Amino acid sequence: MIPTILNNADEEQKAEWLPKAQNLEFIGTYAQTELGHGTNLRSLETTATYDPKSQEFILHSPTTSATKWWPGNLGKVANVTVVVARLIIGGKNYGPHPFFVPIRDPTTHQSLPGIILGDIGPKFGINTVSNGFLIFDNFRIPRRNMFMKNARLEADGTYISPKHAKLAYGTMVYVRATMIRTMSNLLGRAATIAIRYSVIRKQGEIEAGKGEVQIIEYQTQQYRLLPQVARAWAYEFAGRYTRKLYEQFLAGDFEVLPALHGITSGLKAVVTHQTALGIEQCRMACEITGPKIVFF
């Protein structure tokens, strides 16, 4: 939530929302992905239609596939969310824009009228995170709840375009940039566990009569584990570099956005895949006949 406020809120909005987010006066999440949403962000179905008479947006989920699906902590914890929806003004579609949306009563924690939400249920992995779903039924929010650092909307419905069409994608880029260093940390932990085990655990003789050796002495064990250490450091440095690019973007250097978007999109796929394979190699490297290590 905080990166979205920093990247998308104007100064007035930032003064109102940022201190509350930092003081945990509200708990936020990011609701972009929909049940029927693929990789094309412009195909999002949730709409935010501006009503100039009341100076409000009407958030609506027109189909089942428009259900916001998977936001972390939405199921049970979050009471506000950033919603990415198609901006509709006078019947014209202006594409996806971010909106600051309260979803639960701050006192009772019950969902607000016009909102249906809940937990999506058990998942493969990270079951401690209450990933949720969110449906809007003509739910109204004030005009100023549209993030207006980049694109702006005047009270009379006049739309002012952002300097760059993809500035609103900054939150996704931040998550990807952060994810790279997170994968480095996870792979590094697994490699540390497996290598420490390998220098303590002894099994078999390499030379007859010399006694059992540490399993790290076996080349096959080294081939499994040492590349994971190298990958973990490579991902750490890549993560630092992408975070630096993101900070340049946040400071107003919009020229780095195309490179930042491409680098983080590619690295997200490669790094998460290789980290999963690497952790599995570390686990298998501890599968030695005899006493076993409890790996996770």
From TrEMBL:
InterPro entries: ACOX_C_alpha1, Acyl-CoA_Oxase/DH_mid-dom_sf, Acyl-CoA_oxidase, AcylCo_DH-like_C, AcylCoA_DH/ox_N_sf, AcylCoA_DH/oxidase_NM_dom_sf. Its cofactor is FAD. The keyword Cell division does not apply. Its main location: other. It is found in: Peroxisome. Keywords: FAD, Fatty acid metabolism, Flavoprotein, Lipid metabolism, Oxidoreductase, Peroxisome. One of its GO terms (molecular function) is FAD binding. GO terms for biological process: fatty acid beta-oxidation using acyl-CoA oxidase; lipid homeostasis. Signal peptide: none annotated. Pathway: Lipid metabolism; peroxisomal fatty acid beta-oxidation. Residues 169-286 form the Acyl-CoA oxidase C-alpha1 domain. One of its GO terms (cellular component) is peroxisome. Belongs to the acyl-CoA oxidase family. This is Acyl-CoA oxidase/dehydrogenase middle domain-containing protein.
